[in-house]
Amino acid sequence: MANDLAKEVNSRRTFAIISHPDAGKTTLTEKLLLFGGAIRDAGTVKGKKTGKYATSDWMEIEKQRGISVTSSVMQFQYDDFRINILDTPGHQDFSEDTYRTLMAVDSAVMIIDSAKGIEEQTLKLFKVCKMRGIPIFTFINKLDRQGRQPLELLAEIEEVLDIETYPMNWPIGMGKEFYGIYDRYYKRIEQYRTDEASRFLPLDDDGEVTGDHPIKQTGLYDQALEEVMLLDEAGNEFSVEKLTEGEMTPVFFGSALTAFGVQTFLETYLKFAPSPQPRKSNLGEIEPASEGFSGFVFKIQANMNPAHRDRIAFVRICSGEFERGMSVTLARTGKQFKLSQSTQFLADDRSTVNKAVSGDIIGLYDTGTYQIGDSIAEGKKIIQYEKLPQFTPELFVKVTAKNVMKQKSFQKGIHQLVQEGAVQLFKTYRMEDYILGAVGQLQFEVFVHRMKNEYNSDVIMEPMGSKIARWIENDQIDESVSSQRSLLVKDRFDNPVFLFENDFALRWFMDKNPAIQLRDPMEID
Ligand code: G4P
Fold first, then answer.
1. Residue 199's beta-bridge partner residues?
2. In the predicted model, what is the mean pLDDT of the chain?
3. Which site among 91, 204, 296, 493 is 20 to 30 Å from 46 CA-CA?
4. How far is the centre of ligand 1, averaged over its atoms, from the C-alpha of 25 (Å)?
5. In this predicted model, what pLDDT tens digit does every residue of 109-151 receive, in sequence order?
6. Residue-range definition of the domain harbouring residue 474
7. Is there a domain that residue 3 lies in?
8. Where is 85: in which H helix or E strand?
9. Are 291 and 3 in contact (CB under 8 A)?
10. Which residues of 309-332 are buried (b: 16+ CB within 10 A; e: fewer)?
11. Would you say the CB of residue 141 lies under 6 angstroms from ligand 1?
């Protein structure tokens, strides 16, 4: 029994893709699901052009926009592995949920557009992964197009992200003259646009293709070989330990659109990606293969179906096995109840979970029981997993009730939604005006929508634009240092926070007030 559980848990690989919009996340996800046989047609994951929506697009807003608001989970089988891909929403729907999803994974795949290099959203998501110290695998995409020089891209990753790189393979040409990849790990060349039978060319002991293969006539082969030699001599040495600690990222090149390099990537990923790891709790580290179900809520999606007003709490399982109808205790309240309903998320099918173990994500119907960060455990056990970190909001709005007579529902709604983690609440010092902070604009829109639909409260939002929020280490703070450009507010626990107009205002303030120690919750130590 225990062995069976350990075997199941060891087969799980749970990751998220971090990338900037348009780098190819949807395309790569689709190709991975195709390899796993989870979907039959490409185009199933994102239906924006065909008008057919993926199962993750429940919310009204999602339907109007044709985008997916919150992360969904896709599961597929490949060889002996059961893989969970947690979607991280981008574009305007970038939000705290995107960050929180990264708390529920064991590794991350970073996609970089070879023509663009590191982009803003990739950097933000990367920082969260780095904070957690999880392994990050890099896929440099769109090699079928002209992009930047691979060596330059590597240098950028190392410099901007401060992580060592180890190219697992190396491109031979690119764009119209893309011949394939030189695979350092499997010691072979994988040719682009050739039939399955002749796709792989083995390398001899000197790392060269044997005989006179036409690929050798291309100057690009020589160039790739030279660059690989340079990497062998002067590049980083591969270290599984560094990879596991999140200090080194293995780099792969490919083209998601043409499915080139995707399978090789997946197979190598599976060799090094960790199975579910122990997680810290009030009872110490909990082993993933230990008996007794437990997990934590990393995200709550409300109003998936406006007609039913249902919510779903997404739970990352951290130990044991989930069974329908099992009795659990919610650590925050000590309340015991039964988990009768659950859903499992697949790209195109919303089916009921049968077997879910550590590493898997389950969706539980929620009627207001859960908060983000809540932990549940089987039976009467009280297990509380580590608190989810607070993420630095970047966008702010002033918010008031449209109808001053309806303060009660306004207050109730705002406090519940803030507690749920939909947005962050701040107050000004004197007037106690309400200010909301979020990571992405859509969080405000969802907030307005939910205030109206769930609390019958119309709100007025006054945009304040983007600000740099910094918490303060020192306890005592003099209100007189507050100004328009460095506004002093309180968070919902009454901690003082400065909202700086821009980077310049932040630096100016630090210069003038060296005694005040500012803190960014998302800073990497
Ligand atoms: P995202 O989820 O990261 O936002 O990116 P997505 O996969 O939707 O890809 C963004 C665009 O880049 C799409 O083109 C997609 O076809 C293209 N793309 C993805 N991978 C590759 C690749 O390996 N090579 C090339 N050349 N293009 C790639 P689009 O025109 O915006 O959309 P669509 O009409 O293809 O849906």
1. none
2. 87
3. 296
4. 8
5. 999 999 999 999 999 999 999 999 999 999 999 999 999 999 9
6. 395-523
7. no
8. strand 81-86
9. no
10. ebbbbbbbbbbbbbeeebebbbbe
11. yes
Nearest CA to ligand 1 atom 6: 24
Q: How far is the CA of 257 from the centre of ligand 1 (A)?
A: 7
| 35 alpha carbon – ligand 1 mean position (Å) | 18
Domain assignment present for 138: yes
Q: Are residues 416 and 348 in the same domain?
A: no
The number of domains in the chain is 3
Angle at which helix 407-420 crosses helix 441-455, to 10 degrees, equals: 130
Q: Which atom of ligand 1 is the closest one to the Cα of 46?
A: 8
Q: Is 255 in the pocket of ligand 1 (CB under 6 A)?
A: yes
Note whether residue 8 is domain-resident: no
Residue 22 CB less than 6 A away from ligand 1: yes
For residue range 23-52, list pLDDT tens digits in order: 999 899 989 988 877 655 555 455 444 433
478 inside domain:
yes
Same domain, 144 and 43: yes
Q: ipTM > 0.95?
A: yes
Mark whether 260 and 290 lie in a shared domain.
no
Q: Which residue has the tokens 């989970």?
A: 73
497 and 348 together in one domain: no
Q: Which of 272, 290, 318 is the last residue of a domain?
A: 272
Compute the distance from residue 243 Cα to the ligand 1 centre, in Å: 28
Q: Is there a contact between 272 and 15 (Cβ–Cβ < 8 Å)?
A: no
> Of 378, 408, 443, which residue constitutes the final position of a domain?
378
